[in-house]
Amino acid sequence: MSAVFQGKLAENLGFGHILEIGAQVEAEGSWFSISLATGRFQERDNIDIGLHMIVNTQHEKIMLKQQIDGNWLEVADKEYNTDEFHQPFKINLIMDEQKFHISINGNPLMFVEYKVAIEDLNTLKINGHLAQITQIDHRKYFPRPWPPVQLAERRVHFSHDIPIAFQPGHVMVIMVKLRGDTKGRFIMHFRNAMNLKRQEVHISMRFDKKKVIRNSKLPTRNKKDIPEKMVFGSEEKDGHFPFEDFSTPFKIAVAFTETHFRMAKDGTYLFDYALRTPDVLTNISGVKIFGIDGVTVRVSSIDHFHLDDASCEGFEKLSDKKFK
């Protein structure tokens, strides 16, 4: 079975990191798994798996394993009432200096000592019978919380915070599938970590208008130069609409330079958008993705790349479906 989700993390795991995963098991689903590894599955034969968590909803068990040099280590086999996984649930993996602390819906489950160096783990894979994955937030609690404000939002179909500030040369590649009303809209927010009401980049794929809208939602200022309510600025919508088939999965690359947000789809460059807040890049905390007007969004992978070229020239090739 192919992965429900697989992605390269924005930063290798380490002491002070948290992974918060939100999902829901299918109505007749019998299992799912979460794995943290030293490389992408199916690309390397010699990857180590620092944590492999299997939830068997049919037999009401949770099993934990680790794989080192091709050998599996059985860590735990625990009976567990798995009814809650058929509702939206959250699994937290908290990393201290020596072990993973695992909790489900805020309730501690167990801890697992590291057998693979935590700093070598850079890939997350989720597999099994899941109806949806709504959240893969990678955050820090030490040496200081990042992002500083961490909220759950019901309308968001996929949340992805990252534990580091964006820098020029950072590229995020996202695999997406849309369902629902072919006249609806697909939305991406890149918000300010210091004030989540600020949308530093707002992208709206409007299938009803066949336009890709770029904008920002920023505070107005009164006569005393004090920030007031948030308002959208002028829309940018030049360029072609890059969708011919609503239902076909697509791959988006978003690239950050010092002054611009750049986007490509399926190997084709789309646009540059000038950031409207000076020096804001390091305050952007991740992406929130959702659909409106009858659109449901499913994300099956997010991979992070850090290019040597701060202008991200050629970044569009990372969105080519042939690129692995």
TrEMBL record:
InterPro entries: ConA-like_dom_sf, Galectin-like, Galectin_CRD. It comes from the Eukaryota. The keyword Zinc-finger does not apply. Residues 5-139, 158-305 form the Galectin domain. Pfam families: Gal-bind_lectin (PF00337). The keyword Cytoplasm does not apply. Keywords: Lectin. PROSITE patterns: GALECTIN (PS51304). One of its GO terms (molecular function) is carbohydrate binding. This is Galectin. It comes from Musca domestica (House fly). The lineage of its organism: Eukaryota, Metazoa, Ecdysozoa, Arthropoda, Hexapoda.
